[in-house]
Amino acid sequence: MTPWRWAVLAVTLGLGAASEVTAYAQPQDWVPDLVVGLVFVVCGLLSAPAPIGRTGWLLVATGFAWFAGNLVPLAWYWHRGPLVHLLLTSRRPKRWSRAAIATGYLAAVITPVWQHDLSAVVLATGVVAVARTRAALAFALVLYGGALVRFLVPADDLALPTRYAYHAVLCGIAVALAWAARHPGDDGATDRVVEVAGRGSGSLRDALAEVLGDPGLRLGYWRDGVYEDETGTPLDPAGERAMTRVDHDGEPFALLVHDRAVLSDPAIFAAVAAAIRLTSANAALQAEVRTQVDELAASRRRLLLAADDERRRLELRLHDGPVHSLTRLLAELPPGRAAEQLALTLDDLSDLARGLHPRELDDGLAGALAALTARAAVPVRLTLTTGPLPAEIEAAVYYVCAEALANIAKHAAATSAAVGVAQHDGRVVVEIRDDGVGGADTALGVGLRGLRDRVETFNGRMTVDSPSGHGTRLVAELSLDGRPLAT
């Protein structure tokens, strides 16, 4: 400790011992009482390296007020004024903290208030309601216990043990508050800010305002030589409000405009500054991850569109080359076995070309789906309630329907099917049903896995419901505006 702190401690020891000897005759009375006052003063002096913050001075004031009660009977409860002040502002200031603190000081100077068990219990309950800390709860519990003992045991048999319990709790509170002031990371404010901000219900400014109990708090970040809030408005002092700067690696980082009371304690400021840096770093990391995800999705979509273009070119080359030549040759061949084989080959080539890229899609989705369902192995009822769509979306819808109908023909043993395509709420919904045997593998085969990848490329989703004996239902939803679909 610095010399002046040793001097304060020496004065405290001398005045405290004198007040105790004046008030008490027996050592078992004045020694524990002296220890309590000294603990508060020592904890206050050690609560911060330099300078001593608000918590430290309040601890010292509590110790001196404790000794004052030995000299002046009316000062018996003076120590509870700064003690309540400590309990109400050491962790989480509230909007009504000033009024509660004023009430604590007023009650401290009016001796009958704390002296009456019922009013003491009410005040202690109010402290817990405002502070909601372990220290406040310990203070309230020892008062509750003392009141209960005095109610159940009117005699003075338990007066000394009750007083010793009160002494022990006060010493524990002093040590805990000093430790929290000297180790600001342990007070939980950082965790509370990050937790509140992580709920997604508001900005970091909202989280800080909630934790500190200051609705008018403003938060700005250093940009181009000025501190700006989340709307881009420069921060300026307003009236009696204070401005506190938060640096990062020695450089300007953030600025808080706040009520002067909420960040006066160095412990609270250190925790809030750490929370601002941590939350901001987390937000920057999330933004970077989102950017990478968006870039990956864009790359995936470009690859899909490039593959579709290549399929379209292959279909065109196949149609204008081999299919065209073989069609002319078929027209020149006389009827017979060779002509029949050539006709079958042309059919296979046409199916292959259609699989690469259905030419009907060039005239729109409605015609392509009508041709597709007309070629299906089972009767298909087609319902189409959508207008013109982007070409890549129409291709995805077509391939979903084509693969589902192919699976129905191969595996479902169905007698009928239904295909529905509808557009609403910024999405296209494709539904294919059949009355087959069901029991389809929901893990999806290679074809359906490819379709799911195509659907997800457009921020969509695809599900297959196939209970055994009750047919199969495939539903694909594709986003039209590029945004992920709501769940």
Task: Describe this structure as you would to a colleague.
The protein has 487 residues and is an alpha+beta fold. It has helices at 3-23, 27-46, 54-71, 80-89, 97-109, 111-115, 117-131, 134-152, 159-182, 189-197, 204-212, 266-332, 337-356, 365-374, 391-412, 446-457, and strands at 218-223, 226-228, 242-248, 251-258, 380-385, 417-424, 427-434, 461-465, 472-479. Among the domains are: 3-182, no CATH class; 360-487, Histidine kinase-like ATPase, C-terminal domain (Heat Shock Protein 90, 2-Layer Sandwich). 34% of the residues are buried. The mean pLDDT is 80.
Beta-strand portion reads: 5-15%
What is the C-alpha radius of gyration, as a whole number of Å? 39 Å
Helical proportion?
55-70%
Low-confidence stretches: none
Distinct helical segment count: 16
Give a quick account of the main beta sheet: strands, pairing sense, barrel closure: 5 strands, mixed
Straight-line distance between termini: 61 Å
**Strands side by side in the biggest sheet:** 5-6-7-9-8
SSE sequence, one letter per element: HHHHHHHHHHHEEEEHHHEHEEHEE
Structural class category: alpha+beta
Shape: elongated
How would you state the average pLDDT, rounded? Answer: 80
Total number of strands:
9
